[in-house]
Write a structure and sequence with these properties.
It contains 11 helices and 7 strands. The protein is an alpha/beta fold. It has a 7-stranded mixed beta sheet with strand order 3-2-1-4-6-5-7, sandwiched between helices. It binds uridine-5'-diphosphate and magnesium ion (MG). The site of uridine-5'-diphosphate (UDP) has 17 residues, from strand 1 and helix 4.
Length: 337
Amino acid sequence: MITSQISTIQNFQSQEEILDVSIVVPIYNEVESLPHLLEYLAQILHENQLSYEIICVDDGSSDGSTELLKHLAQTQENVKAVILRRNYGQTPAMAAGFKCARGRAIVTLDADLQNDPADIPMLLSKLAEGYDLVSGWRQNRQDAALTRLLPSKIANWLIGRVTEVRIHDYGCSLKAYRRELVADLNLYGELHRFLPALAFIEGARIAELPVRHHARRFGKSKYGLGRTFRVLMDLLTIWFMKKFLTRPMHVFGSLGLLLMFVGTVLGGYLTFLKLGLQENIGDRPLLILAVVLLLAGVQFFCFGLLGELLMRTYHESQDRPIYRVREIVENNVKNGK
Ligand code: UDP
Ligand code: MG
């Protein structure tokens, strides 16, 4: 009974997974580059005899991209337009694309032609070597030095240190994923920059390949310096998830106990002064410190308990295992199959 259920699911999946690759492109006001991009993509994918679909996610554009995209999706083969209701940002746009991707591999790239579609076959063959994620590395990045390259250098170094995923270029949108991996990733906020780190948390094998990068030919970048701070905040989230997602009590609980311990020792000392030596302790800053430490300690401890509850809800409500299986190997003959 269970076996037949599993095989039905597998059949369902194999019927769905008929394509070699799904290309996911988030689009926000890129009307000029769109036709060039689609033409170039189709040419490269045809040349390499890949079965494909191009999923263009329109992220609330207001420059006519939406209308053009609708037209292109109706007239061109293998192009699908997903039109979002408003501008949500690059991460939700990519998540919307992932959701309807049917390819065995999923490739993401920018709509502005800064990434070169000619690099896609190379990424796919690396993926076929057994990696779950292959990330592009813009060795010759064509962006402004001070506002883009410098913050990005610092961010890459920081992210590398915090996440322990040793790749050079997190910001490159050109990446190839195995479909199973994408299905396991939950994207929020602006976490698309941290996809390799999220993938690493899920146990993915990650590779990096140098790719071409061009200056923007049309339109202008949607980001400025302001994103640096948002990246820092996201980095904190990732760090926490990587370290403590399944054991929040370890961080909050131990910190709480430590603070409570110090608070209690100080309180004990003050009690001794008051009761043993009859000293006046009412005006001592140490008293305030002891009280604050005790209260903070209790709060941290309760945070830890709440975190444990939330973590269980997070995993159990989605049937989300706390581990990922790469493959299961068994002797089929012995099991009579
Ligand atoms: N993008 C999007 N929604 C947004 C901002 C950007 O879908 O709110 C898309 C944009 O159209 C482009 C990609 O995300 O295809 C990357 O944006 P951009 O090229 O401006 O970033 P940069 O390459 O300068 O880092
Ligand atoms: Mg760009």
